[in-house]
Amino acid sequence: MSQKASFAQWISGARPRTLPNAIAPVIAGTGAAAWLGAAVWWKALLALTVAVALIIGVNFANDYSDGIRGTDDVRTGPLRLVGSRLASPRAVLSAAVVALSIGALAGLALALVSAPWLVAVGAACIAGAWLYTGGAKPYGYSGFGEVAVFVFFGLVAVLGTQYTQALRVDWVGAALAVGVGALSSAVLVANNLRDIDTDEPAGKITLAVRLGDARTRVLFQLLVALTGAMTLALMRATPWAAIGLIATPLAVRAIAPVRSRRGGAQLIPVLRDTGLTMLVWAAVEAVALAYA
């Protein structure tokens, strides 16, 4: 019988450390809109509501799907509600549905005041959130999770935020989208690197399982470096974009445990530091573009 999870455990189950993956794209997209002279603060808040609700929804959906499959029965990472028997699968599924519904309603409102065809994009995002670990053939179990994160929390989130405010996108928005998407994917790479030993026996064949430990560590570093390359690209728009390099010490701190071949729980800080790198990079680049 499932125990009753405390409020603090429900908050932990929502995985607050992943919130930078939702917040950073909206900041970056708003900065890209400001670069075009078209930032709209209330649309940015609606986009933020969508992004935060979706990432909480996908986290609970992941908790539910992995929990009922037994993937989380043995793990070294943060708390999982179903796998730890702290909450029933039905309760966690309900939390996922509520969060995704909030995201859907906010996204519908944003689409209706911007471009109605964005409703289809929102539907694709919700489907992607559920099918990551849900359904008969979850793509997260086949090694496509990092690609989906790059697309949804990088390209779609950043360019979608820019488009809803400016009603167009440009190469500056695309560069920001690639930079944010690379770091967002790097967070998942680090997470799956930590879980290689438990995911493979559970039948969760992530990209990290496919690549193996050594090549996954190289991939992580390449993704972080790609964001650095986007900083240099953005300097073509304004020299002030160089302040994005202020995130370098955080990036170096994130990379250090990966380079030194740390494993298990020792990789948990990598997720935090990569998320902080993404948040700081997006924020300073947005400010640079807004005031250039």
UniProtKB/TrEMBL annotation:
<keyword id="KW-1133">Transmembrane helix</keyword>
<dbReference type="GO" id="GO:0046428">
    <property type="term" value="F:1,4-dihydroxy-2-naphthoate polyprenyltransferase activity"/>
</dbReference>
<dbReference type="Pfam" id="PF01040">
    <property type="entry name" value="UbiA"/>
</dbReference>
<feature type="transmembrane region" description="Helical">
    <location>
        <begin position="21"/>
        <end position="38"/>
    </location>
</feature>
<keyword id="KW-1003">Cell membrane</keyword>
<feature type="transmembrane region" description="Helical">
    <location>
        <begin position="147"/>
        <end position="165"/>
    </location>
</feature>
<keyword id="KW-0808">Transferase</keyword>
<feature type="transmembrane region" description="Helical">
    <location>
        <begin position="117"/>
        <end position="135"/>
    </location>
</feature>
<dbReference type="InterPro" id="IPR026046">
    <property type="entry name" value="UBIAD1"/>
</dbReference>
<comment type="pathway">
    <text>Quinol/quinone metabolism; menaquinone biosynthesis; menaquinol from 1,4-dihydroxy-2-naphthoate: step 1/2.</text>
</comment>
<dbReference type="InterPro" id="IPR000537">
    <property type="entry name" value="UbiA_prenyltransferase"/>
</dbReference>
<keyword id="KW-0474">Menaquinone biosynthesis</keyword>
<protein>
    <recommendedName>
        <fullName>1,4-dihydroxy-2-naphthoate octaprenyltransferase</fullName>
        <ecNumber>2.5.1.74</ecNumber>
    </recommendedName>
</protein>
<keyword id="KW-0812">Transmembrane</keyword>
<dbReference type="InterPro" id="IPR004657">
    <property type="entry name" value="MenA"/>
</dbReference>
<keyword id="KW-0472">Membrane</keyword>
<feature type="transmembrane region" description="Helical">
    <location>
        <begin position="171"/>
        <end position="193"/>
    </location>
</feature>
<feature type="transmembrane region" description="Helical">
    <location>
        <begin position="214"/>
        <end position="234"/>
    </location>
</feature>
<feature type="transmembrane region" description="Helical">
    <location>
        <begin position="91"/>
        <end position="111"/>
    </location>
</feature>
<comment type="function">
    <text>Conversion of 1,4-dihydroxy-2-naphthoate (DHNA) to demethylmenaquinone (DMK).</text>
</comment>
<dbReference type="InterPro" id="IPR044878">
    <property type="entry name" value="UbiA_sf"/>
</dbReference>
<feature type="transmembrane region" description="Helical">
    <location>
        <begin position="44"/>
        <end position="61"/>
    </location>
</feature>
<comment type="similarity">
    <text>Belongs to the MenA family. Type 1 subfamily.</text>
</comment>
